[in-house]
Specification:
Number of strands: 8
Low-confidence stretches: 2-12
Mean pLDDT: 90
Order of helices and strands: HHEHEHEHEEEHEEHH
Oligomer: single chain
Strand order of the largest sheet: 7-6-1-3-2-8
Structural class: alpha+beta
CATH superfamily: Peptide methionine sulphoxide reductase MsrA
Radius of gyration: 16 Å
Number of helices: 8
CATH class: Alpha Beta
């Protein structure tokens, strides 16, 4: 997850362009609610960071680290770092829509990252760390596009770097990536990148936090 890992191979922008073109004809996959919980999918740099951010949000049961947005089957951490799979580190957010809405999760998304950073977040650089916000239906797409329009009216057109893609499939990451920040508090990356990013978000959105945010 350190920056030297994310910079060890060359960017393959042509593959990204092909994937984006193919995306235009893909119908989104809508994940059915289970036991009263819905699911949403986001990519915003290191999934250790993003998982911890969403798990601090009220109404979120769990956030799971994984991969999405690419064109290969069964991606892994090693294969995604080759930059040839098209996949980005992503999270699956399992939430109660009676407690928090999808639009709130989108606010969390844009409010917890460097909105204008292309192909990365912070020290993590490369297409596997790019920002993607996935939609499962037209309503979600409309919400996302309205949020982006609102942001760009303030910051300037074209400022938002995140891709808006149809959701196809989420691949759960290896077990050692799950709850990584919470289980590895002394890790240098966690101390210097993940925790400061989490604390910055929590300070910015105290009204969206669980009563006892970790």
């Amino acid at each position: 997850m350190m920056s030297q890992v994310s910079c060890q191979s060359t960017d393959n922008s042509s593959n990204q362009q092909k994937a984006l073109k193919a995306q235009q004809t893909i119908q989104p996959t809508e994940v059915i609610s289970t036991d009263g919980f819905d699911r949403a999918y986001f990519a915003s740099g290191c999934f250790w960071c993003v998982e911890a951010i969403y798990e601090s949000v009220k109404g979120v049961k769990e956030s799971i680290s994984g991969y999405s947005g690419g064109h290969t089957q069964n991606p892994t951490y090693a294969s995604s770092n080759t930059r040839k799979t098209g996949h980005a580190e992503a999270v699956e957010v399992i939430y109660n829509s009676q407690e928090i809405q999808f639009s709130d999760l989108v606010d969390v998304y844009f409010g917890s990252q460097n909105i204008g950073q292309v192909n990365g977040q912070g020290p993590d650089r490369g297409p596997q760390y790019r920002s993607i916000i996935f939609y499962q239906n037209k309503l979600q797409k409309d919400i996302i596009e309205a949020k982006i329009k609102e942001i760009e009216q303030t910051l300037g057109k074209g400022y938002v770097a995140a891709q808006v893609l149809t959701f196809e499939k989420f691949w759960k990451a290896e077990s050692y990536h799950q709850n990584y920040e919470r289980l590895n508090p002394t890790n240098p990356y966690v101390q210097n990148v993940s925790i400061p990013r989490l604390r910055k978000f929590q300070k910015k959105f105290p009204n969206l936090l669980k009563t006892k945010a970790h």
